[in-house]
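Q: Hi! First time doing this. I have a protein sequence and I read that you can turn it into a structure. Is that right? Here it is:
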Amino acid sequence: MAFAGSAQAHPWIGISDPVRAASSGTQDFSAATHTGSSRVRNVTFYVDGRRIFLDRATRWTVPGGVDTRRLSNGRHRLRARVLFRNGATRAAEKVITVRNAIPAPDKT
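A: Yes, that's right. Below is the predicted 3D structure, encoded as structure tokens:
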């Protein structure tokens, strides 16, 4: 899990999924905080700086995950940003390497 912030001095957020650094196909993308859901207003999820989901529920998960087949092969940055009810924010990032299969050439 990638963490941002100090667990003792500040609230933190961690990206709990995806677990593997190299991936292909649909990957879970979720986050966790040590503060509990009552202190969290929302969690925003990003892929390569583009917002893909804003979660106001207590799951802190992108529904359906991230389909890496929609991404080019190579390194991509996942980011989860939490907004706490007191206005504080924290973020965690994780870099994954997408390795999608190259489709076979059409022989028609």
